[in-house]
Every structure is written in structure tokens, then in C-alpha cells.
Amino acid sequence: MIESVLNNHVDDYKSVSVEDYIAMRKKHFAHKKEDFTALKPYQSIVVLALSFPLEQAKYKGKGYGYISRYAHGMDYHLVFREKLRNIEEALAKENIQAKGNVDINSIDERFAAFLAGMGFIGHNQFLIHPTYGTHLYLATLLVDKTVTTTDYLLDDCGECTRCIDACPGNALAPHSFDIEKCLSHITQEKKPLSTAEIKKFKSNIFGCDICQNVCPKNKGITPIKRSVFESDENAQIHLRTLLESSNKELMKRYENYAFAWRGMSVLKRNALALMLNQKDDSLEYYALKLSESLPNTPWLQTTINTIMKEVK
Fold it and tell me: Model pTM greater than 0.85?
């Protein structure tokens, strides 16, 4: 029954027992002192996967900021939440208690997916699926029954270091990851940007796809095409239009996109960094305008000051 319900809603799923998950977290992440209380009423953690398309429009160039591919189309959180609600309701009719979550929960989704045999975690820190590569969204479903699935054959990166070599922030190394150097992380953090960080902005205004684009495991993959996750005009943001719009206007425009979750001030900060590196002659005007419109945002003001020093 559980299998038929899941097959109707997701592209793939694998399961790990709550007991095994907790044991492995305590073994490998004891320093984090995690609270597993919410998991203990359940028997299984089922990791759910939805794939997203490979295709993306060619970058328009100067004056635009590209959005990382995973955030094209409708916010996957919204898509998954509806699916999780439908799954919970269908299982409840069979007296099966289930609780679904996407991102905002105490379960490490990628680690659970690895334990469940859905794929392996590569040097690029992504779960790599044998059919969908890194092009998949994950969610979890806690179930009060034992759910048994068959693991895929365990793969690994072998001798490949392409993502490590290509990473613009030198954030990757075999068996280690420095998140503070990761460009995707930097584009999403509400913090002042250093000169070195600002100079790493080339085309992306949110996220970074470099480590995925160079990964051989993404060659020949076949993600399922869904119109809801297809790229549209908002996959590339016109920088001047962004900076001329109020945060309220922008949130209304982008509310159903995954890149909106960090707020528009982060995107505007990143837009100025792109303008600096693209040598946009309107940078000073927009930097002053943004500074005046958001005077009580210290991390943004500090970044603007750093950018203006580079101009002068």
C-alpha cells in the first residue's frame, strides 16, 4: 500500500530505519548533539525524490544575473508540500501515520538518502543518483511502519576531481567541504561580502552550478521533465530592473520561486557585485540608491562601501 501511494507522487524513494539513522548520526556526528525525540515515535524514514530538468537557457550576458538551475520554475518546497499532504492523507486512510517534511526539519536529507541507498554523496556534496545525477530535490517522510526498499549499487567519485578543480571558491576537497568558501552559500548569506568574495561573482546572482555542470555523473542522466520546474523568464534577472524595484514589489513577483526565501536585499547586494565585475557604468548610481533605501541594514551597507572602494 505504501509503495503504490509513493509511486503515484514521486520519482523515487528509499527507506532507512529510524533506529539505524539515529545510530549513524551518533556515530559520525556526535559533536552536533542532535535531538532525535521527534523521530522516535516512527519506524522508518522514507526519502522522497523529485527530479528536475537539465535544460536551461543560454546566459544573456552583461546586465543579467543567472539563477542556479535548481531554483528555476516553481519553488520545489511548494510542490513537495502539496505532494506530502496528499501522501499523508492517502496513508491515513489505511491507518498508517506519516509526517512529511522538506528541508525544514531535523533530518539530514542527503545523509538519510545515502543510508537508504538512494545514491552516494560526491566531492561536490550533492547526493548523486544513478538515474538523475544531482538533478533532484529531496524530502523525507516519517512512517510508523517498517518500509523496506532495495539499495542501489554503491558508486563513488573514484579518482575524479573535476568539481574540486573547478570550484571558484576552493571550497571542495576529498572528504571535506568549507561552506564559508562556497559561492552558492555566499550568494545566499545575509552578511557583508569581502573584496575577495565580491570578485567571485561572474554571472550568477543566486547559487552556483559549476560543480554540477562539470560532474561526469550528470552526463547522460534522464531527469523527468515537468513543466512546473522548467526554466522561464525569471531564470535570469535584469540587474537594473531588480535595483529599481521595491522589495515588496519583488517579493510579490518572485514569491513562488525558491530563490526568494532569503529576501530581496540579498539579491540586490549580489546585483551590485555583478555590476562591479561586469563594469556596469550605472553601478555608483544604483549603489547610492540602494544605500539610501535600506539605511538600517549593516551587512548591506558594509558591502556597498567595499564595492565603492573598488570603483574608486
Answer: yes
